[in-house]
Design a protein that fits this description.
- This protein folds into two domains: 171 residues, HUPs (Rossmann fold, 3-Layer(aba) Sandwich); 93 residues, Pantoate-beta-alanine ligase, C-terminal domain (Pantoate--beta-alanine Ligase, Chain: A,domain 2), CATH 3.30.1300.10.
- Strands 1-4-3-2-5-6 form a six-stranded parallel β-sheet, sandwiched between helices.
- Helix content is 35%, strand content 19%.
- Helix 7 packs antiparallel against helix 8.
- The longest helix has 22 residues.
- The relative contact order is 0.13.
- The chain has 281 residues and is of the alpha/beta class.
Length: 281
């Protein structure tokens, strides 16, 4: 595996691969790898000829006062894990490489970035500008995201569609621990007691799934079933909302596939999770 720090190095390595018609897969990450990240690498390895993993803790994705300085980092460990998964290139640029002096360009995807994580009361639309602005440095053929980051994946899909960027976006299942907690680098912040409370997020999603499976369709009733689980654990959500899976617009009924998204702070950790609720009309 090669580790590179600059876009020039990255593209020089990829140029002959691209010229030879080899399929390039990208797994964009902020590092501190867990099995969710590794599952994306495995999927990319099975699909592609060349696998690139980017490792960049993007300051533009952190709101003021958020955990940028405390965000867990261990590049040596990450490199070992990536190499064990057969990754070809680890792209780990410095902030100055991504945002050099005079950097003044931002890419905004309207309509999808002002809600849920992008709501001004949460992280703000600037969070997604950080994602979209630096997305295409590797110029991959395919990019892999986890379902846990459903909104981010939807934003990137809209970006590549609107700007005619020839990248296929693949969204892979959320990876969970055996107790149901969605894997996240921020889980490292949780104490044993906080981790127990954090399980309310996945229980809330399962309660909503059960409500829909039993015939409940009204959004308020589905959300109420999920909210009961959070209340029992003493977890106050930043949001708990049903949204269209295609454009994140609010829905009043679960008809077909609908996204139930939740975010909550448990101790120092701000956690997100979601489920796609199906159901016939």
């Amino acid at each position: 595996m090669r580790s590179v720090r600059t876009v020039v190095e990255l593209r020089e390595l990829l140029r002959p691969e691209r010229s030879a018609g080899r399929r390039i897969g990208l797994v964009p990450t902020m590092g501190y790898f867990h099995d969710g990240h590794l599952s994306l690498m495995r999927r990319a390895r099975s699909d592609c000829d060349v696998v690139v993993v980017s490792l960049f803790v993007n300051p533009a994705q952190f709101a003021a006062g958020e955990d940028l300085d405390a965000y867990p980092r261990d590049e040596r460990r990450d490199a070992e894990l990536a190499e064990a998964e057969g990754v070809d290139i680890l792209f780990a640029p410095a902030v100055e490489e991504v945002y050099p002096d005079g950097f003044a360009t931002a890419v905004t995807v309207g309509g999808l970035t002002e809600t849920l994580e992008g709501d001004a009361a949460q992280r703000g639309a600037e969070h997604f500008r950080g994602v979209t602005t630096v997305f295409n440095m590797a110029e991959p053929d395919v990019a892999y995201f986890g379902q846990k980051d459903a909104q981010q994946a939807l934003v990137i899909r809209r970006l590549v569609r609107d700007l005619d960027i020839p990248v296929q976006i693949e969204v892979c299942p959320t990876i969970r621990d055996s107790d149901g907690l969605a894997l996240s680098s921020r889980n490292a912040y949780l104490s044993p007691e906080e981790r127990e409370r954090a399980l309310a997020l996945s229980r809330a999603l399962r309660a909503a799934e059960a409500a829909v499976a039993s015939g409940t369709r009204e959004a308020a009733a589905v959300v109420a079933a999920a909210r009961d689980e959070l209340d029992r654990a003493g977890v106050e959500p930043d949001y708990l909302q049903l949204r269209s899976v295609t454009d994140l617009s609010p829905v009043e009924r679960v008809n077909g596939s609908t996204l139930l998204a939740v975010a909550a702070r448990v101790g120092r950790a701000r956690l997100i999770d979601n489920a796609i609720l199906g159901g016939d009309q």
